[in-house]
TrEMBL record:
Gene3D superfamilies: Aldolase class I. It comes from Leucobacter chromiireducens subsp. chromiireducens. Coiled coil: none annotated. It comes from the Bacteria. This is GuaB3 family IMP dehydrogenase-related protein. CDD domains: IMPDH. SUPFAM superfamilies: Inosine monophosphate dehydrogenase (IMPDH) (SSF51412).
């Protein structure tokens, strides 16, 4: 049955779904939450919880990446943010937290992010995380990847993330500018690469064919993004994840058994969204705004991404977030409110137990319902 609808005589559109339009269906079996495993692994690295901290300065500092690692997740440091441009960004983050005017904040952020990325700071920040004994992950946007790859690898990164609003295996660049050849880059690199975002089956399949260990799913769907307003581009996450999960299964057959991990990235504002992401086929989730609500988050009650201070066309904004609890309580509870902002892993564990599943891969097979809003 076609899921396309006619929006006019000359145009048809595909019907897609958001997290708010779907729900998880209980089965005939239940189990105790203590019998549920939320463990996840990618390449040779194993984690107790399927949570990655988004590489955003309001979410991950070296200290918060270490804290998330010790809680069983993976913190991904933004390697072109304030931590690699300034020797001591703490006073700068405190300064930004005092600015309430949006226009003034954009101007100040543009000034701060105009400072050059320093290779020695990339080395030092990643080294700080490594010394703590947790898995080391850093992220660069596609246009900075080739420039700083050697520095990142020599610093001892375990997982390398190439993250943009959208990343394709085929990019057309202006004359004189050499685009990043993802397939060649990943082939020559000695560490696993996670790349994205992707929002369609075909894009994800192309990225999987480059040799990526994981694909990020999402396109400007986060709390701080205005991509839908500024560019008119939208990719509802429930359908996007399901499409990319379908590409994963087809690539598994095509490649003779190579499994590429699907990581939901964006639009995950609550524990319910995180649960539905896994139910739609995600192996793990990358959290931004949900972790920015931590009282010990570097954003100090504010959240923003790289697009918020773009030099000519911001596609994101700096948003105020309510600080609800320390990072450990946001992930593992106890929750003191019933709005899905705390005890995210506990909620995932209970949802799996309520529907009778004991492991994340099993939970991807859970039944879903659609309820039109």
């Amino acid at each position: 049955m076609s899921n396309e609808i006619e929006i006019g005589r000359g145009k048809r559109a595909r019907r897609v779904y958001t997290f708010d339009e779907i729900g998880v269906v209980p089965t005939r079996r239940t189990r105790d939450p203590e019998l549920v495993s939320t463990a996840w692994s990618i390449d040779a690295f194993q984690f107790e919880i399927p949570v990655l901290g988004a590489p955003m300065d309001s979410v991950m500092s070296p200290e918060s990446a270490i804290a998330l690692g010790k809680l069983g997740g993976l913190g991904v440091l933004n390697l072109e943010g304030l931590w690699t441009r300034h020797e001591n960004p703490e006073p700068l983050l405190a300064e930004l937290a005092q600015i309430t005017d949006g226009v003034e904040a954009v101007h100040r952020m543009r000034e701060l992010y105009a400072a050059p990325i320093l290779p020695e700071l990339i080395r030092d920040r990643l080294g700080q995380i490594r010394e703590a004994g947790v898995t080391v992950a850093g992220a660069l946007s596609p246009h900075h990847t080739a420039e700083f790859t050697d520095t990142v690898v020599k610093a001892g990164v375990d997982l390398f993330v190439i993250r943009g609003n959208t990343v394709s295996a085929e990019h057309v660049a202006r004359e004189g500018r050499e685009p990043l050849n993802l397939k060649q880059f990943i082939y020559e690199l000695d560490v696993p690469v996670i790349v994205g975002g992707a929002a369609t089956y075909q894009t994800a399949l192309h990225l999987m064919r480059t040799g990526a260990a994981g694909v990020l799913v999402g396109f400007g769907g986060g709390a701080s993004s205005t991509t839908r307003v500024t560019l008119g581009i939208r990719a509802p996450m429930a359908s996007a994840i399901a499409d990319v999960a379908g590409a994963r299964m087809d690539y598994l057959d095509e490649s003779g058994g190579r499994y590429v991990h699907v990581i939901a990235d964006g639009g995950l504002g609550s524990s319910g969204d995180m649960i539905k992401a896994v139910a739609c086929g995600a192996d793990a989730v990358m959290l931004g705004g949900a972790l920015a609500k931590a009282t010990d988050a570097p954003g100090r009650g504010w959240h923003w991404g790289q697009e918020a201070h773009h030099e000519d066309l911001p596609r994101g904004r700096r948003v105020a977030v309510e600080q609800v609890a320390p990072l450990t309580e946001i992930l593992n509870g106890p929750a003191n409110v019933a709005d899905g902002s705390s005890n995210l892993v506990g909620a995932l564990r209970r949802a799996m137990a309520t529907t009778g599943y004991s492991e994340l891969k099993e939970f991807q097979r859970v039944g879903l319902v659609y309820a039109e809003r």
